[in-house]
Amino acid sequence: MDVFSGSLVQSNSFIKLQSSPSSFPAPMLLGNKGERLTRNNPYSCSCKRKTRAHSSPNLHSPSETTFEVTGVKSDFSSKEINWPSPTDDIPFWKKDFPPWDMSPLVSVNLDHHDPNPMHIIHVTAEMAPIAKVGGLGDVVTGLARACLTRGHNVDIMLPLYECIPKHQINKLIRITSYESYHDGKWVATDAYRGVVSGIPVIFLEPSNHFFKGSYVYGGSYNELEAYLFFSRACLEWMQVTGTQPDIIHVHEWQAGALPLLYWDMYHHLSVKKPRIVLTIHNLEHYGECRNRTLFEDQYGDTPSMWDFFLYLVASWDSKEQLSRCGLDGPIYATVDKALDDRTIGHNPERLSLLKGGIVYSNAVVTVSPTYLKETLCSGWLASTLIRHRDKYYGILNGIDTVMWNPSSDIFLPAMFDAQKTDGKKTCKRYVQTGLGLPSDKVPLVVCITRLVAQKGLHLIHHAIKRVEQLGGQMIVLGKAPDVRVESEFEGLAKLHNQGPSIRIMLIYSEELSHMLYAAADMVLVPSLYEPCGLAQMIAMRYGTIPIVRKTGGLADTVFDMDDQANIDKANGFVFDGIDEGSLNWALDRAFSHYTQIISHCHWSYISCSYGGPLPFKVVRMLMTCLCGFALLCDP
Fold it and tell me: Which residues have CB under 8 Å from 250's CB, separation 6+?
């Protein structure tokens, strides 16, 4: 099969653990017909790529996915690489990289154009790469791109955070000046249109203090009130401009008030057409309307008892906090609407924006089938989800295969694909050299994550010790929002970072994360719970074997090498428990297989095949669900 002009068939198995490289498909790439792409690489690699246009994924059945891809025939040879050193004044991941303009890579494929294209607006607090904190940003960008390639008209609506790097936005222009309501006043707001990563984005910038600060989250403003404002400002913009999308796709609690505002306000005005989809990326975050921040805003960190008494007598409760966006808050303080079940009978009772969004949306999606089952069985929102089970779907996330592509990734010192894997070995040596690790032929394990309890901190801590005992190398990349966790890992960094096998990087770096996925032999994802997880998918895309705990989307995407019942799907190493022994069992087996395979073939031959159909599966399932019933009925 000519992988650069033909079709690619992907069965249930995402990775086959085999010795022969000939059995592995090439990665999926998107491009324009006949276009030659040339770039100047800071690593002094000379790379030219020619693209041909092919069709985007065509889904036939859940068991076998057949899709045609655009191929990029690459010259991966490198004339010279400037090898980094840990003593360099500028770390290798902070060097200048060429601009990554993905606009030419987004093209509609007429052969697989959806028969009824829709106008879809995503309302979100995050978008990769300009406003990315976690996986939410990656998923929004990837899904928007997938919809575009199937012929849908797609916009993303995003706050114009002060911290957004404006140079990454193409063709940014102001398109509308209008006013949107907040707390008894109409706030002057500007709407801008731009293109990010080939995707149209509408940015909203209020004239007040909302969304000011050095980071996406954690500014000096009340975040809940800021996103209440943003939710209404999105609908207000649609009304002012006469925009009538088919679907408004809201993401997470930050946009949870929009379904309430739409059905109880704007649908009775002029925005009649849209139907609402809510995607729950993580039920840990539910958007609680509460008093504490109002109290702190008024009285500071050290109030007197008299201040507290006056506050209890005179302060607004959570229902009135919701009322600041123009809704009648007390109406929603019922079990069948937005009341937080855990606070029934408390003083005050509180509301949940996420619960309100679930109740008021036409369809609710979470990001993996297993996480759907888990959310129906546990957690305080389970009863609400059970009541709305007929509109609740578990659809596995996918990755953006344009942004995550080892054969065109501008951050890599050498590119590679499933047919030509030498670049992966170069990436490993490059990272080892740059971080002062010996360039030995030992397994390199990486863990790229936010350092929060959900991610299994005690298991990450233990893995550092176990990998060292097994004679391997390990790199941890991530930041901890909790100062106590940050302090703990700073201690580990001081203990290990001058040694020969462990590096702990307490930073956020998109560039370094790409390099680590490419360099690693294994990626560790030991989450206590994981709605979906993208790290294991990106790892497989870059020929890196996942070691994961069996939970949520990890259970839906990684299948154990030694599980005879799923031997045809084998693509990694899985453990069930949350104890150190369970993790040891998976790590020990992974190292054992590495030793066996490396003596017969290149470990990097194991995979470069993952990624691609899942974002399109999301689109197809959403379109089927919505066209089937949601466009015909109110929630």
Answer: 122, 123, 124, 231, 256, 258, 259, 276, 277, 278, 279, 357, 361
d(CA 3, CA 292): 58
Q: What are phi and psi of 184, to 5 degrees?
A: 80, 0
pTM of the predicted model as reported, rounded to 2 decimal places: 0.81
Mention every residue, 6+ apart, whose C-beta is less than 8 A from residue 282.
252, 531
Q: How large is the C-alpha radius of gyration of the chain?
A: 25
- Helix intervals (H) in 542-601: 552-557, 580-598
Reported as a single tens digit per residue, the pLDDT across 481-527 is 999 999 999 999 999 999 999 999 999 999 999 999 999 999 999 99
Burial 234-269 (b: 16+ CB within 10 A, else e): bbbbbbbeebebbbbbbbbbbbbbbbbbbbebbbee
For residue 602, give the amino acid letter: H
Question: H or E stretch including 541?
Answer: helix 535-541
pLDDT at 252 over 50: yes
Q: Helices 580-598 and 457-469: crossing angle, nearest 10°?
A: 40
Specify the long-range contacts of residues 305-314, CB closer than 8 Å, at least 24 apart: none
- For β-strands 170-182 and 185-196, DSSP reports them as antiparallel
Cβ pair 248, 277 in contact under 8 A: yes
